Amino acid sequence: TQGGSSVLPSLTNSGNLVSGAIARTFAGFVLMPLTVIKVRFESNIYSYSSLWAATKDIWKARGLRGYFSGFGATALRDAPYAGSYVLLYEMLKKQLGNFAIIAPNGGSTTDTTMATAVNAGSATLAGVVCSILSNSFFVRITGFGQASPLASISFSISIPPYLAIIFSISFLIL
């Protein structure tokens, strides 16, 4: 960042958005075989005795393609979140960094502490905001949460889905 705590090159806002989305999509692609094996192993639909049994069954049934089942949907879910996260994180880091007070002695632990606080605060705030936005979209398109007793009321009066879920969970806990 400009004059900040990072040695990485600064990107434009669109560069941050695209790089976050591409990085998450690539990571998802690399890890997809492990995810498919894990999900099928944990599923009640399949009764595998071991991870190796799940791996062999997927290979027998669908070949290499079976290990990437669901990749498209996963990428469409994760890429917007990751891109938005990197974009918002970098924007917040820049803005919060402007408020940081740097100690005049030019290198004390105050500098490190302030940089840590700026990075942690930016990461936390970006994660919360992006989770609320992306999970709201995910809930809307999948219908997740409609088994809740309050779901029909909350969706019909246009309460954002994340608030409806929080309210439903709170209501059920009471």
Would you mind describing this structure in some detail?
The protein has about 170 residues and is mainly alpha-helical. The protein has 6 helices and no strands. It is elongated. Residues about 145-155 have low confidence and may be disordered.
Topology record:
Blueprint: H1 13-42, H2 51-62, H3 71-99, H4 109-142, H5 151-156, H6 161-173
Helix pairs in contact: 1-2, 1-3, 3-4
Keywords:
mainly alpha, 71% helix, 174 residues
Uncertain stretches: 145-157
Overall form:
elongated
Tell me the number of helical segments per DSSP (H or I, 4 or more residues long): 6
SSE topology string: HHHHHH
Please count the beta strands (DSSP E, at least 2 residues each): 0
Largest sheet: none
Strand fraction: under 5%
Radius of gyration: 21 Å
Mean pLDDT: 78
Structural class comes to mainly alpha
- The share of residues in helices is over 70%
The first-to-last residue Cα distance is 47 Å
